[in-house]
Amino acid sequence: MINGMVGDRYRLQERLGRGGTATVWRGVDIDTGEPVAVKVLDAALASRPVMVERLRREAEAVARLAHPNIVAARDAGIGHDATYLAMELVDGPTVADLLTSGGPLPVEQAITIAEQVCAALSAAHAAGVIHRDIKPGNLIVDRTGVVKVCDFGIAQLRTRDAQAALTGPSEAVGTCEYMAPEQANGEPIDARTDLYSLGCVLYAMLTGHPPFLEQTAIAVMHQHLHRLPAPVRTVRPDVPAELDELIGRLLAKRARDRPNTATEARARLTAIRTAPTGAGPLPATMAGLSPTTAVLARPSGRRRAAARGVSPRWSAARDGLARWWLSVVAAAVVLATAVTVTAVVVGRDPSGHPAPVAAAPTPAVEAAPPAASTPAEQAPTTAATPAPARTGPATVIDRLAALAGTVQEQVDAGALTAEAGRDLVRQIGEAAVAVQAGKADKGVKKLREVDKRLAELRRDGKLTAAGFAALDVVAPIIAALR
């Protein structure tokens, strides 16, 4: 870069943003007078062939794609002064900016943005380009509401030299919070990989928060591989059930359980946006896994603090996750979903939570038949009522959530068998349902069953003395209900 010029053609005027490897500038094409965005590779990286090749491939990828929802490339250059990519300048914020400044987006706006991203992905995939880094920061919304997908820097091209990969066979490339499980594992990817990332973006647009937040990138990727995110409607009850279900399909762990194409996903989004308004039943499970109880991961540490897009509304909702978990368990009880261990509030594994291990599901009770697009192994959704209001005593609901968390702690510590822990969590969930429905007497009855079961487990050697002491708090909860 000499005197603010690159490529003897582009005068840099204002720095727009900076990524991990390059800086994006607002500039002007001195030959035409048109404004441009110029992505300049950091000088320290310009001597690395792999980084230069990535920029070249980005230029090649975008050059293939002439689409109104994709930022257009104008020129690329590799020279002694700078290695750069000149692009269309889009005047508007990124989706990440919108989340940071205003929190979760209105449902219709989120759907409209996702529809346009699907249109861009359809064009990219048809041209043999997999983006691999769909995230809020790579989606720009111009002043007229048109969405532009940018940053194809790590895109994978299906070309004759596709074997000349820029990453190792097991190297994960992308942004961890929006990374598909196959990316995290360094496995082969396809168009459905971008659809998983789109599901994460939809989740973030509606909640202000990606599906998983943890303290380290490894912990986040572990969640993508092994965890179910909380259904969106546990945080945003105004989200249509059909949209929540679609997000569940997009976030399926196995690619074959996601929509097959971006065109299919876009058609579904359009149908949801144009359908009569009105929220349907809260789904009990997310798509794409063997039946398990949905786990509400609690963001903590640095990554929780880094969630700058979280609005006060989301913060309040997050504080109530323990209570909403009880609703999720209640739906799982109706479905008679069986798991080896159900995580509630606390637990331990590399990400800070125990990995759920699915056992053989028991027959579903009064469950609606699965939709035609639902995989055969997926637990059918139930016509449960929307998440109930907090009608029971606040302290009781909180104490029930804490009790369920203590059950999990005892399972983790080896003080309680996994099977017994599963049954206790189910019984606590049933009690919570009764309390939230204002049926205190029924809640007392269920809790007495829990108390009796604890004594039986201690007698039969399935619960240690220390575990029993930790869980011997049922009587005070019963007293609070009477």
From TrEMBL:
Record key words, sorted: ATP-binding, Kinase, Membrane, Nucleotide-binding, Serine/threonine-protein kinase, Transferase, Transmembrane, Transmembrane helix
GO molecular function: ATP binding; protein serine/threonine kinase activity
Positions of ATP binding: 39
Ranges of biased composition (kind: Low complexity): 354-391
Record-annotated Protein kinase domain positions: 10-272
Region (Disordered): 353-391
EC id: 2.7.11.1
One Pfam family cited in the UniProt record for this chain: FIMAH
Record carries keyword Transmembrane: yes
Regions that span the bilayer: 324-346
Name of the protein in question: non-specific serine/threonine protein kinase
Lineage: Bacteria, Bacillati, Actinomycetota, Actinomycetes, Micromonosporales
